[in-house]
Amino acid sequence: MKAVIYDKKHSPFRLCLKEVDKPVLNDNEVLIKVVSVSLNAADYRSIKMGSIPPKKIFGSAVSGTIESVGKNVKHFKPADEVVGDLSDFGFGGLAEFVVAPERAFAHKQPNTSFEDAATLPVAATTALKALRDKGNIQKGQHVLIVGSAGGVGAHALQLAKYFGAKVTAVCSTKNIEQTTSLGADKVIDYTKNDFTKGSIRYDLILAINGNYPLLGYRRILKPKGTCVIIGGALAQIFKSIFFGWLLSFGGKKMKTLAAKSDPEDLEYVAKLLDKGNVKAVIHKRYPLNQAAEAMDYLSKGHSPGKVIINIQEKNNEYTRTPKLH
Ligand SMILES: NC(=O)c1ccc[n+]([C@@H]2O[C@H](COP(=O)([O-])OP(=O)(O)OC[C@H]3O[C@@H](n4cnc5c(N)ncnc54)[C@H](OP(=O)(O)O)[C@@H]3O)[C@@H](O)[C@H]2O)c1
User: Which domains does the chain have, with CATH numbers?
Assistant: First the structure.
């Protein structure tokens, strides 16, 4: 099969398209013919940090069709259309086929496209975990979404509205229109205003992107408010892990999220997408042979929406000339 393999000799991102053996199924696994993959920060950050999956194939947010199932598999059968999060199961999505335990997958809704379905694993499920589980979001609360234009942020904004919150969203000038069209009640342009110094207080803050002072976040929480730090610059993540808990006192809570693959959450967001409660926001599409360029683009940190790799396309030929370091 064709797969995009990590190989130190290639650039950009040490990725190149190669012919490799089709994976072999064990009794607890399903074999998927991958149709679409959405890239996530975990893909390019793992490459940058040298954390390489066992089969050297990245890609965790996949949609596709079941080719075959192991004899212990209970919930799926051949030809089922699925969506899956492989981030806890060795990645492997940037390939024509992948095997993973059945608990990595949920059924794709029949009227949802494979591309739209592939936007959900990691991005939408992380937003759901942050709002519902860490943030305990309640109807009528005032929620601040910092980084509303990216993969996690666009889902978080729409899910917060679905849960009945009033949402203020933070993005740059070029993404104000998109953020407004996704339902934000108010948009703050972070290139013009420092929201951490404003007078408005929030019940719940989702810190998804950027690098802002933790004390600034704490300052704009209501007395019993919660701030969930999800991501952003590495400095933001380290500050949150090492110092966030120190700032959880006096009723205000500073929490850090480390989301795990969860098929029930995946099914939950897949149904919301199917019913039109949330929309997939896709910014760019690439064929498999341009996965490295797609990764390079996403890693710049300013994609307004998801970057999709379509695996099952006729133009996945070995056209890219590898550049040696
Ligand atoms: N904790 C977890 O379990 C977990 C799970 C998944 C992802 N994450 C993390 O969550 C973060 C976001 O992931 P993602 O998939 O949404 O990334 P993404 O799609 O690449 O996010 C890109 C967006 O970030 C926005 N952005 C960049 N700088 C910003 C700033 N200073 N302030 C506000 N927005 C800014 C950009 O909007 P503008 O162009 O308007 O700036 C762009 O639209 C990453 O750091 C990722 O590692 C964490």
Answer: 2-119+280-310 (3.90.180.10), 126-256 (3.40.50.720)
